[in-house]
Structure formats: structure tokens, C-alpha cells
Design goal:
Elements: H1 3-29, H2 32-39, H3 43-50, H4 53-76, H5 84-99, H6 101-112, H7 127-138, H8 148-164, H9 166-173, H10 180-200
Helix pairs in contact: 1-2, 1-4, 1-6, 4-7, 5-8, 5-10, 7-8, 8-10
Length: 203
């Protein structure tokens, strides 16, 4: 195997191990030794590739936000077909969060860090959802005075909270809210609330 391929494979192993370590323990408690052991590399190789633990952490944040941008691209390409399109947006976001548990945990850690390590991350935050909402307003399906940015933000935050608070609320209610049936019920409820607001909110 040529050296460039070996280097790419090694770097990916480091990134995979780092994502798991940072999402589990946060930046402060994460250990480079643990990342190196999990990746099967020498610790010095990690510093050679990324310079510092902080820069590696910032790289991981950039990676998970690019996944979010990919989700927004998916949303942008949904064909607008009336109010049910918003249900698709909610369900797609739930699907994204189910498939990306480390995204949820890393965002929680980074909020505790006051977003100090996000650097120059570029993401199309809310762009797909806003695009769908604009189409609905232009088509006369959604109310014309809809605050598109705030509504897109609400959709994102309502969905995210179902995952960020899942363990504490599950404990308090005595049932597993991360179970597929519970997540589906939560997604449907959020979709109901959002669509009702989009159609009949304050004028």
C-alpha cells in the first residue's frame, strides 16, 4: 500500500477514536493516550498530524457540523408538497440525530465550553429548513407573516432537546424515551405543534 493511503487510513483511525473520546468525556477530560490506544498509533503521531489536543477537538467539531450541513442539503432538496413537507423536515432531523449520537454529545460539551473551540466552522445552519418554509409562504400555504428564521430555529431546538434531555427525562418518567416508538411519538408531536403554528399562529 502506498504511503499516502497508509497516512489517510491512520488519520481516519485517529479521527474516529478522537470523536468517540471527546463525545464521551469532553475536551478537558479526554486523554490523548486513550485516543492513541484506541486508534492503535503512537501518541506522537497524533501531535504530528494535529498539533495539539485542542486542534484535534476543533477538527472533530468541524467534521460533525459538516454532517449537519449534509442534512440541510437533504432538506433543501425535498420537493415542497404542502404542510406535510414540514413533517418530513422534522422526521429527517430526528433521523439525523438518531444516526449521529456523537453530534448531540459534542454540542452539549461545546456549549459548556461557551463555543470556544468552534474556530472558523462554516455550516449551512437552518438553510434547508428555511428554504422549505419560504416555499410554503410563497405558495400561500403557510401564513404570510411567518418568522422563517425563528421557526427554523424552533424546529431544530425542539428536535434536539428530545435527544439532549433523553436520559434525565427517561429516568424521571421511568421509561426509555430513546426507544424507536417513543422517538416517533415525540417527532409526531413536534410536527403537530410546528404545523399548527405555521398555519394558525399569531397574525
Amino acid at each position: 500500500m502506498e504511503q499516502s493511503k497508509k497516512t489517510a487510513i491512520t488519520k481516519q483511525k485517529i479521527l474516529d477514536a478522537a470523536e468517540a473520546e471527546f463525545s464521551a468525556n469532553g475536551l478537558a477530560a479526554a486523554r490523548v493516550d486513550a485516543i492513541a490506544k484506541s486508534a492503535g498509533v503512537n501518541k506522537q503521531l497524533i501531535y504530528a498530524h494535529f498539533g495539539s489536543k485542542e486542534r484535534l477537538y476543533s477538527t472533530i467539531l468541524d467534521i460533525v457540523y459538516k454532517r449537519l450541513s449534509h442534512y440541510e442539503d437533504i432538506i433543501s432538496n425535498i420537493e415542497f408538497s404542502g404542510i406535510d413537507t414540514i413533517r418530513k423536515v422534522v422526521l429527517e432531523y430526528f433521523n439525523f440525530l438518531v444516526k449521529n449520537p456523537t453530534y448531540v454529545r459534542l454540542l452539549l460539551w461545546e456549549n459548556l465550553n461557551n463555543a470556544n473551540y468552534m474556530g472558523e466552522i462554516k455550516t449551512s445552519l437552518f438553510s434547508g429548513t428555511e428554504n422549505i418554509l419560504k416555499k410554503g409562504v410563497e405558495a400561500g400555504v403557510f401564513r404570510k407573516n411567518l418568522d422563517i428564521e425563528q421557526t427554523a430555529m424552533s424546529i431544530s431546538m425542539f428536535c434536539f432537546s428530545a435527544f439532549s434531555n433523553v436520559h434525565t427525562v427517561s429516568k424521571l418518567l421511568g421509561r426509555d424515551l430513546s426507544a424507536p416508538a417513543e422517538l416517533k411519538k415525540r417527532a409526531e408531536h413536534i410536527a403537530d405543534v410546528i404545523t399548527e403554528y405555521i398555519l394558525y399562529g399569531e397574525n
